[in-house]
DNA sequence: TGTTAAAATTGGTCAGGCAACTAGATTACT
DNA sequence: AGTAATCTAGTTGCCTGACCAATTTTAACA
């Protein structure tokens, strides 16, 4: 005998029901906060007994998908699915302080994990800076490349959570810190040269895997941003 | 043979039943491969209906604790290191890795800046944990207090940016890490006790401003969460 | 002894019932 | 009018008893 494989292992009914309800939720048929049909209604709709529905709901409740309230009904739980946050009204100091810590971690992990492609991507941002300085191109581009450097650095950590956090930090266009730095850089040729120089130094340290130096350079870099802001 | 104990109050019946059976398994009353009493027997022993027993067994089966075979019985599963829910293990690792770094910073800053109110707020979350353990209240509350501890700790840094980052990390209800931890804590009394104990230790270290110890305890705490997930 | 068939056991599902609870409408009171 | 207490319809929580389907055990038989 060849195929003794259990071909279609029958799913238990409560599992099928749980899957179906879960699919309905994931496909936005029911959104967070929505009330599911009553147990009796579900039973009638799916042509099963209320007992089976309850077994399925118990599972979904344990899995934190729904919230079953006695005497009321079952509600789809709220689920936050990304690591975005806002920094609108937070102070410049706070933002810089956090960057100091986060980028320190990023540098450390980037040194451990950066791929050849990561390095190339980071290098490209520095090349971008160089070009915009040389050709006196639009300051917007300069600033974009500057931010891209830090983003690409974050990507080199290979940690999506960290990448998302970093991006959130860097994408606060409206934040006074960025506005201000943008202006400073706009006005000062020297500031642009300086920033490029610092980026190049950090990248060089990462390439040689000199963690201590890389972290120190990053620290100085951010310290410098801070001074730029307060001067 | 020692029989399972009757039921208390408050938490939903099927949850209590699942807890009891799980505890019986974790305390080696039933070892991997062992056959549990029949549903009818469990119902009679626990003085509950078979329907409630089945809801509990459904949960335990989904959580990969037992294996329910039709016409045969329920068997305790081998405790292996595979997760039952299809989930990129990388995602969990990444979240834990980031928490490790972020919470380390949080502890450091909290020690420097926590106000009397901050400390009180953190203490309150521990008191909440204590109460829910004592009164066998709904596990949702326990989990909420557990998260609140880390949130209040973040608030003690007085850095809004950091607070928001921390919140974004802790509010991932749908993330497999939280789902899984929620379930573990739900079933295991010991896990709850352990968590409270660790939180108390961290708070104590912060109060005495013992930075080194606090950071180490936090590290162990998160390491422990990690083990809980992978065990 | 080995095979087969019947019986007992066990989980799977169902229908229905009452109690406990919640939210919303209604009523009573100030 | 505004507020508090009360009622009511609807929902979940839990239980009971029954029957079905898969599996194991037992018994009968060749």
UniProtKB/TrEMBL annotation, chains A, B:
GO terms for molecular function: DNA binding; DNA-binding transcription factor activity. Keywords: Coiled coil, DNA-binding, Transcription, Transcription regulation. Residues 11-79 form the HTH gntR-type domain. Pfam families: FCD, GntR. Residues 112-139 form a coiled coil. InterPro entries: GntR_C, TF_FadR/GntR_C, Tscrpt_reg_HTH_GntR, WH-like_DNA-bd_sf, WH_DNA-bd_sf. This is GntR family uxuAB operon transcriptional repressor. It comes from Planomicrobium soli.
């Amino acid at each position: 005998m060849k195929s003794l494989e259990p071909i279609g292992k029958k799913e238990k009914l409560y599992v099928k029901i749980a899957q179906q309800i879960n699919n309905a939720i994931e496909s936005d048929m029911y959104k967070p906060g929505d009330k599911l049909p009553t147990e009796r209604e579900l039973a009638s709709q799916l042509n099963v007994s209320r007992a089976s529905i309850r077994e399925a709901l118990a599972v979904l409740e344990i899995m934190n998908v729904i919230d079953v309230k006695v005497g009321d009904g079952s509600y789809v739980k709220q689920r936050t699915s990304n690591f975005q946050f806002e920094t609108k009204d937070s102070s410049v100091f706070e933002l810089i302080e956090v960057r100091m810590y986060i980028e320190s971690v990023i540098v450390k992990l980037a040194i451990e994990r950066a791929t050849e492609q990561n390095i190339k991507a980071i290098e490209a941002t520095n090349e971008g800076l160089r070009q915009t300085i040389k050709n006196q191109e639009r300051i917007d581009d300069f600033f974009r490349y500057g931010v891209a450097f830090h983003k690409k650095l974050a990507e080199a950590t290979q940690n999506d959570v960290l990448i998302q956090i970093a991006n959130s930090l860097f994408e606060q266009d409206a934040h006074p810190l960025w506005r201000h730095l943008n202006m400073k850089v706009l006005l000062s040729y020297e500031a642009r040269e300086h920033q490029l120089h610092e980026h190049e130094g950090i990248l060089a340290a990462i390439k040689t895997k000199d963690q201590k130096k890389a972290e120190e350079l990053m620290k100085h870099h951010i310290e410098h941003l801070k001074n730029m802001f307060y001067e």
